[in-house]
Amino acid sequence: MTSTPGSAGRTAATTPPPSEPPHRVRRFSPAERLVHRATAALMLLCVATAACLYVPGLAELVGRRGLVVTLHEWSGLLLPVPFLLGLASRAFRRDLRRLNRFGPHDRTWLRSALRRRHGPGRRPAGKFNAGQKLYAAWIAGAVLVMLGTGLLMWFTHLAPLVWRNGATFVHDWLALTIGVVLAGHIAKALADPEARRGMRTGSVERPWARREHPLWDPDRD
Amino acid sequence: MNETTQPPGPAPSDPPPPDPGTPSGPGASGDPARPPSSDPDSEGTPVGRRTVLAVLGLGAAGVAAAPWLQRGLEAFLGSVADKDPTKLTGLLPNGGGFRYYSVAASVPRRTPADYRLTVDGLVERPTEFTLGALRRLPQTRLVRDVQCVTGWRVPDTPFEGVRLADLLDAVGVRPEARAVRFTCFDGVYSESLTLDQARRSDVLVCLRMRDEPLSHAHGGPVRLYVAPMYFYKSAKWLSGISLTRDVRPGYWEERGYDIDAWVGRSNGRDDAPTV
């Protein structure tokens, strides 16, 4: 810790009262951060290889179609593995449970988000806000659909041609949608350095937690 | 920082179901600053699970309804693409047009000056053709649909070039030859045809496509064009034709594609034939 932004300096630097809670609070365990990092790496590889297979300019630049196909297939197949390994962690399972449950405060949050309203009490959120919950559930379902349709395209003898054509159709359009949603996810992270620090180091500043996730009590986590 | 593996201990009023370790202690202890319910996300509707299931269901429905959805989208995108100066619609799935596939890391460029097509193997007169020599031979123009084995199809595409049969006659095929092997100056790709297939009148050594000189991206200056077969048979960047005793599987055929790649009758597909 080098400096505390916003502090007035060293004047009258007395020992803080002992009841003061620590300034930084734990948000993600090492296991959770590892799951996120591994998933992100696989997802980026999967998206990058997809672009090289699909966008004519990139395909022309990169070539090596056989290699790119292999990388795409395996990064896609391995994408759910960090999640499955993460289930061994209690902290990860606990956060999954939180992401699953929607309370009345989430409806309030969504309503405010849709009407672009900010202000005190407008965006109530626990450890995860309603947008994060929806994103997590949607991307989980989308990855599973991509996996299923991808396997149909990969192992061509698994299903009749009509299914394969249907799988290609869904795979292509959902890939486009995932690209857009993923860009939104990354843009949200880029816009909030403290949220990024939380995922990188595991802890966040207490005022940030209180502001962004007022219903979350990190001390009881 | 506190570790997450701390004992569940005196969590004052956690609802019992999600956390089996919580003792049902005296729930009266309260935090003066906060309402007693500790974690608002420990209960509520399981919207997350329902969302996952809904996405899975929509995905399956999409696969099932794809034939109808695709037809509608193709009609719509086709009409938009005609008026789209940015060509961005070409990047959308089923947006129409050719897709660029190359199996090599990079493909060298050949100009009319340094391009050569060698014809050898079981022939009477092994010959090297320049682009000029190929252009001086009789040219044939065919307009057919292009069908890729991965599903995309481009309608009514003009191809123009020398009939492979004419080229074979020019060099003289020896009687023991049964097949033709094609190699490419990308250094990797190869293809094969039986001699009977190669002699068909709709198999060209192609110099022009869509009434323009064949561009590098489309396999220029010279590619093979096998009208009745899936487009992987139409090897790009053609540089060698060799007469052989037997058919030798080409690049994709060693990776599971059919050697006799008739459109609609191979590779487990039932596309409408292109000829």
Q: Could you give a quick summary of the protein structure above?
A:
The complex is a heterodimer of chains A (221) and B (275). Chain A has 221 residues and is mainly α.
Molecular structure report:
Chain B: Residues 106-252 form the Oxidoreductase molybdopterin-binding domain. Chain B: It comes from Streptomyces wuyuanensis. Chain B: Residues 1-47 are annotated as: Disordered. Chain B: This is DMSO/TMAO reductase YedYZ, molybdopterin-dependent catalytic subunit. The complex is a heterodimer of chains A (221) and B (275). By secondary structure, chain A is an all-alpha fold. Chain A has helices spanning 30-54, 56-62, 65-78, 81-86, 90-100, 104-114, 130-154, 161-191, 193-201, 206-212; strands at 24-26, 203-205. Chain A has one domain (26-215): Fumarate Reductase Cytochrome B subunit (Up-down Bundle), CATH 1.20.950.20. Chain A has a two-stranded antiparallel sheet. The longest helix of chain A has 31 residues, at 161-191. Among the domains of chain B are: 47-91, no CATH class; 116-255, Sulfite Oxidase, Chain A, domain 2 (Alpha-Beta Complex), CATH 3.90.420.10. Chain B is elongated, with a radius of gyration of 31 Å. The model of chain B is unreliable at 1-36 (pLDDT under 50). The interface between A and B is large, with 67 and 59 residues.
